[in-house]
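Structure ticket #2291
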Amino acid sequence: MRLQISSLVKKFGNKIAVNNVSLQINSGEVYCLIGPNGSGKTTIVKNVTGLLHPSAGTIRIGDFDTERDAFKAKSLIGYIPDEPTAWSAITGEEFLHIIGALYSMPEKERASKITELLPIFQLESISKEYFEDYSRGNKQKFSILAALMHNPQLLVIDEPIVGLDPISAETAKKLFADFAKKGGMVLMVTHTLAVAEQIADRIGFIEGGKLLISGTMADLRTKANATAGASLETVYKALV
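Resolution: structure written out below.
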């Protein structure tokens, strides 16, 4: 299984938001995209998830083209957006049930999965409270769990750590890393360089809609003529 993005272009009128980006993510891999605001990171994410449609190029998840085989491709994706959103008048548990139902999970299977997921962030005690009453961090936790409901092959994550307390942030990072270790694929967008450095197998630098550099930390340090222990922040400043 792999995510293959080939020569992706996305235009908004005359503005080119993503300019001929190609990258590949294999099973068992966490890939992080980093770059300044407005560089095209979230636009790439939204093209992968089908929220936007490419102006040119192709995106394939396994055997499925996201345009020609949209329903099958989307069934393989778990999406964690940058802003956790749900109807305010439902509970966290109901939110998870709704997400599972959208992926055609039977009720018993949904209930079993919810029982499995809630302890990850210790949400059992608030699962029957309304979404509108949750803190930003707890909304984010339920958003993360919702992405895992249907056992996806690909996690697409846009700024997952924002709003999480330090312990929950560590839990989330371990969750994503373990997802990849079990054969999943992770495409993550983040401004938190320490997060990317900690869990990414490969990292891509994007600016002005173009993927400038991509590789492992060792690759990036070599390209930056940096020492073996140089941080991602140091490498990023040297290369971009």
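Closing remark: Residues 77-151 form one domain.
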